Amino acid sequence: MINVILFGPPGAGKGTQSQNLMQHYGLVHLSTGDLLRAEVAASTPLGLEAKKLMDQGLLVPDHVVIGMIEGRMKSNPDARGFIFDGFPRTVAQAEALDLMLMKNKLSITAMVSLVVPEAETATRLMKRALEEGRSDDTEEAIKKRIREYQEKTLPVAEYYRSKGRFVAINGVGAVTEIFKRITEAVDKARH
Length: 191
Ligand code: AP5
Ligand code: MG
Prior knowledge:
The chain is an alpha/beta fold. It contains eight helices and five strands. Helix content is 59%, strand content 14%. Helix 2 packs across helix 3 and helix 4 runs parallel beside helix 5 (91-103). The longest helix has 23 residues, at 139-161. Bound molecules: BIS(adenosine)-5'-pentaphosphate and magnesium ion (MG). BIS(adenosine)-5'-pentaphosphate is lined by residues 8, 10-16, 32-33, 36, 53-54, 57-60, 65, 86-87, 89, 93, 124, 128, 136, 145, 175, 178. BIS(adenosine)-5'-pentaphosphate binds at residues 8, 10-16, 32-33, 36, 53-54, 57-60, 65, 86-87, 89, 93, 124, 128, 136, 145, 175, 178.
């Protein structure tokens, strides 16, 4: 089993690289952002509540995303492993994930952190705003998302560093180059 956490600030390329990794290793992609946006699109009660927070660039409550991840892991019992994209985003989420994995005798292979300077992620997100119009790609929401990342999510990196599972890679360059750096890091962590 390979269980990889893709970590990084908004616009770091987590979603982009997840697509490549999913195919390369045959893993199931679990993106809490995508799962939440699907709830919003379906106008479920959970989606309507989450949308208010997401549009402001604020994190949704831990129990909501933990429940989503637990459900998806249970519904994929034969998975060869998972790519966690945008989860865990708080230390409480990381602890909940550890517990879920432990129950199934699994563990995290590596947390791969995509290091991208803020000027670059800002350019990427403003470009995506024009192309895709994601409702949280506004200047104000992006600022909040960065603040949430710095205050609540960065400590998650320390959590995995202390377990010897943290790897930082340069997230700037061509998508294919970055993908190569990620697979090298994952392959090294597997052995
Ligand atoms: P989420 O959907 O996870 O958004 P995010 O973390 O802000 O990250 P993005 O999806 O914007 O960026 P990304 O790193 O995936 O980059 P991408 O590949 O798209 O979360 C959204 C919201 O949901 C949160 O704010 C929160 O409200 C809620 N939420 C989600 N998970 C939660 C959790 N666990 N707990 C609580 N709340 C949660 O790339 C960005 C752009 O750059 C794209 O246009 C792409 O084409 C381009 N690009 C990618 N790579 C490159 C490259 N190498 N060079 C140039 N351009 C590139
Ligand atoms: Mg994403």
